[in-house]
Amino acid sequence: MITRETLKSLPADVQAPPYDIDGIRPGIVHFGVGNFFRAHEAFYVEQILVHAPDWAIIGVGLTSGDRSRRKAEEFVKQDCLYSLTETTPSGKSDVRVIGALRDYHLAPADPQKVLTHLADPAIRIVSMTITEGGYNIDERTGEFDLKDEAVQKDLKNPENPETVFGYVVEGLRRRREAGGKAFTIMSCDNLRHNGNVARKAFLGYAKARDPELARWIEENATFPNGMVDRITPTVTPDIARKLNEKSGLDDDIPLVAEDFHQWVLEDRFADGRPPLEKAGVQFVDDVTDWEQVKVRMLNAGHIMLCFPAILVGYENVDQAVQDSDLRRNLENFLNRDVIPTLKAPAGMTLEKYRDSVISRFSNAAMADQTLRIASGGASKIQVFWTETVRKAIEGKRNLSRIAFGIASYLEMLRGRDEKGHTYESSEPTYGPAQQKLAKADDYESALKLPAFDAWRDLDTSELDRKVIALRKVIREKGVKAAIPA
Ligand code: CS2
Fold first, then answer.
1. Which residue ranges does the record assign to the Mannitol dehydrogenase N-terminal domain (predicted)?
2. What is the CB < 6 Å shell around ligand 1?
3. What is the pLDDT of residues 199-217, one digit of tens each?
């Protein structure tokens, strides 16, 4: 366990927070305190607290259950301190203890406590990493899904919410009633136009709750779009042990991430913002081109690599990218399907970006997991591949690589690799009926899964035919035999 006491006698190579930890105060509430948030937003905020001590972060977890409770206990026991090890592809590492997260609440344990923070004028930003699928948008209509059970529950009992939408909107209602200001709602998820998606989601909920409140939120809150980037693996007990061995710390919640990190953000804040430019955040007027490149190359490439890699039996991303067949497929996908239909932001070359992505995937010191990348594949496919798929179908381009990606995803969902090992592929948005489709033996019925909803309005007959044929090849001859030339 590390505590405030530990900060007084850190091992020589471990950096301490560069500010007085008793002198910082919260200005941000963050929903979804996962590893990515801890290695990204918290890492950036950590560096500016020395200049602006009133932007520390209060974390909120929304899920109940044993795992969430254990996580909350671990955070609180360590006074929300944790170590971050940054590793370069050549294996060089740096360790620091991060103190920017100053408190952590499990919302279901004390909803009113969370609402009190959200109503507090000191909180000027509410940020979130709630996953690509967490915004409750129906891909077929593109609208916030009011029929969702949890949303319905919150609408019936809005002052005791359970969803992030319920919390944020109730927090804003209290601020309005007190004559206060709205806060900035800042999504840090890997979505194209994450701010616009958040806007649609929170206003969608607010309109159903109270149209006048929704109008006030629309006029007073802001939803900046941002591109976020840092590969942050899951920390298994084995990785945790190795990290501690190396750092000399005894951290119950250590973290590892690549040395690369990037955050491009629109400068639209409702009530001020931390001077994040001092930590390297790029503020721009329009983030569109940046996020397109990141999502359509890095994230899309990640799943194009990892779905088939899981079938081959690779556990780690660096092993997958060292495999010449899988790497060639990834390069062909980026070179032929993505780059020709993508616009580079000024000053960026897509070929260079591609090379950096491949080098980042090769970072063996992180032991990033193929199953982490594949988890939530249904939402990731829609967010990361849609643009490329739509452009390919509409432009009558070659569909083989996309079909191979989809066929690999569907075969991967069946939970058994080519060596006969079974694994758990997690699809949190699939209910029992969809799980059944995902495990079905035939090659066709899984094409009804919502993973492909975002292009269902197009004529997919050729794509579907190819997917079915490739699934057959994968099952009969192995995934490598199905890789398009
Ligand atoms: C990954 C991301 O889970 C995924 O699909 O592609 O978590 C990726 O590591 C981050 O977006 C990197 O910024």
1. 27-278
2. 190, 229-231, 299, 302, 373, 380
3. 999 999 999 999 999 999 9
Tell me the best of 187, 295, 298, 317 to mutate to test the pocket of ligand 1, counting ligand atoms within 8 Å of each CB and taking the most. Answer: 298
What proportions of the chain, in percent to the nearest 5, are helix, strand and coil?
50, 15, 35
Q: In 6-43, which positions are buried (b, 16+ CB within 10 angstroms) versus exposed (e)?
A: bbeebeeebebbebebeebebbbbbbbbbbbbbbbbbb
The answer to whether the CB of 407 falls within 8 A of the CB of 447 is no
Residue nearest to atom 13 of ligand 1 (CA): 229
Substitution site in 192, 232, 235, 302 for ligand 1 pocket (most atoms within 8 Å of beta carbon): 302
Query: Whole-model pTM?
Result: 0.95
Relative to beta strand 93-98, strand 14-15 is parallel
Tallying the residues shown for the chain, one arrives at 485
pLDDT digits (tens, 9 = 90+) for 5-30: 999 999 999 999 999 999 999 999 99
Give the pairing type, strands 262-266 and 82-87: unpaired
Ligand 1: residue whose CA is nearest its atom 5: 373
Ligand 1 atom 9: residue of nearest CA? 231
Domains of the chain: 14-285 (3.40.50.720), 288-482 (1.10.1040.10)
